[in-house]
Design brief:
Low-confidence stretches: 1-5
Radius of gyration: 15 Å
CATH class of the largest domain: Mainly Alpha
CATH topology of the largest domain: Serine Threonine Protein Phosphatase 5, Tetratricopeptide repeat
Number of helices: 7
Strand content: under 5%
Shape: globular
Length: 123
């Protein structure tokens, strides 16, 4: 499947969609390449930054993932990304910063159980 077949008039969405498919198939390197293409096509595409960060975490590239989580939040703040950022920070041993991100996720979405559980697990 070619990326242009998914969203023929929106290259960033096409690359992002194909990246998601590759990620679900466990083809992390291919997924990362597609997310990078999506970002090249649209540097403000928050979903591609978020997906890239998620796949970089799978490769253990936590510092790089941290950067892309931050860019995703700059483009489009979301509780999901604050939670993901908290998880990355926690894995890096930066617990105070992680707790702050979980709190931000909860502030945006008070019913976000995963963020609440992540924060509670830290205590």
């Amino acid at each position: 499947m070619k990326s242009h077949q998914i969203h023929p008039h929106e290259p960033a969405k096409s690359h992002n969609g194909l990246g998601v498919v590759f990620s679900r198939q466990g083809r992390v390197d291919d997924a990362i390449a597609q997310f990078r293409e999506a970002i090249r096509a649209n540097p403000k595409y928050a979903a591609a930054y978020n997906n890239l960060a998620e796949n970089l975490v799978k490769q253990g590239k936590l510092e790089e993932a941290l950067s892309y989580c931050g860019t995703s939040l700059t483009e489009e703040p979301s509780a999901t990304v604050y939670n993901k950022l908290g998880l990355v920070l926690m894995r890096l041993g930066r617990t105070d910063e992680a707790a702050e991100q979980f709190r931000k996720a909860i502030a945006m979405n008070p019913g976000y159980t995963e963020a609440r559980n992540n924060l509670a697990a830290m205590h």
